[in-house]
Amino acid sequence: MNKVDLLIVNIGQLVYFKEPIRKVNNDNTVILENAGIAINDGKILDIGKSEYIKEKFMSENIIDAENLLVTPGLVDMHTHALFAGSREDELYKKLIGISYSQILKEGGGIYKTVKYTKGASFDYLKNRLEKTLKIALINGTTSIEVKSGYGLDLENEIKMLNVINSLKDQYDLIPTLLAHVIPKEFNGDYVDYFVNKIIPETSKLKLAKYVDVFCDENAFSLEQTRKIFKQALKYGFRLRLHADQIKYIGCSKLINEFPIDSIDHLENCPEENLEEIAKTNTVIGLLPASSISMLDNKKPKIDLVKGKALFALGTDYSANSAMISMQTAIDLAIYYLNFTPIEALAFSTINSAYSLRLENRGTIKIGYNADLILWDLENINQLGYYWGYNRAKKIIYNGKVINAQSI
Length: 407
Ligand SMILES: [Zn+2]
Description:
The protein has 407 residues and is of the alpha/beta class. The chain contains 14 helices and 18 strands. It has helices at 50-56, 88-95, 100-105, 110-119, 122-138, 154-166, 190-204, 222-234, 271-278, 288-293, 326-335, 341-348, 350-355, 382-385, and strands at 2-3, 6-17, 29-40, 43-49, 57-58, 62-64, 69-72, 74-76, 141-147, 173-179, 210-215, 238-243, 260-265, 283-286, 311-313, 372-375, 392-397, 400-403. The strands form 3 sheets. Strands 2, 3, 4, 6, 7, 16, 17 and 18 form an 8-stranded mixed sheet that branches. An 8-stranded parallel sheet has the order 8-9-10-11-12-13-14-15. A two-stranded parallel sheet has the order 1-5. β3 and β4 form a beta hairpin. It is globular, with a radius of gyration of 21 Å. The relative contact order is 0.17.
């Protein structure tokens, strides 16, 4: 018998996906009953029936899954998880009908968070991000994208990216340089500054995998986004895009001009543009908590492209909508966007990993990172039935076991 670091046996239902999912079917989805998994060196070593795993391997660490559900760990493909200060006052403004655009125009919103973040020290920001990442992990998020964008100038964007990179050993972080908004007071052309100073310096220091642009009214125009994307490609970055969130100014059309891995938000995207995106390998990032937090009753018009497009889910945790649980994102995908529990799981695992072009993560496969969730649920459909709380029992992150519930 082979001795390994960890065994999970007596899994009632093991659910994972073989490839990025447009429509869930028997060829691309695995639902294995009475399953077991062998884990060694933080990687998946073998998968099979529980009896087979018990016969073939031995370990000092055995988790008896007691016939419960096991899935891959969740991947949060869109967050602004690093910032200082808080903006609870704006919730009241939104509740009495003041729009997000109005709040931004009056110097609130992102500008307010930029002020706090610029004034915060590296250590303060690091502690704050670490606290957020811990909550995410305990709720099942084993990989997470984190954007800069609350620094705006070179010094503070680099500070943010350095903070994100400083936690890479403890958490599976994917850093993104974000062109968020144009500073209120800036001498000269900010797009030129972003393109000629911030992009080259971020590239030189190897601080980010992605460049993302907030292309929208009161943020970056189509032409400005083009300039940033061209330079980002030249410096070897991959591309993500915030598009059509506040108002439609044509941003989602950029998928015809650039190789964009993920196009997110799309609350105001015309249906014909969504149909164009659905024909490509660009992932549509759905951020239901963010849509709801705007309190303007707008959600992406995705009914026509369900079953056709590659969707992924993210929390969009930010200073505007501070919701960090991917389980809540799944709940909202089910109850607000009307996806099935198994679709919501696919969009939070294999599809969100694909949207970040992650290797060895997002599904359960020999050689892949052992990032798993043992749920306090009997089957995948209970993931939609029981909702609104942390249903993870144990999280396995890089082969290490974390108890999600202390009672
Ligand atoms: Zn965002």
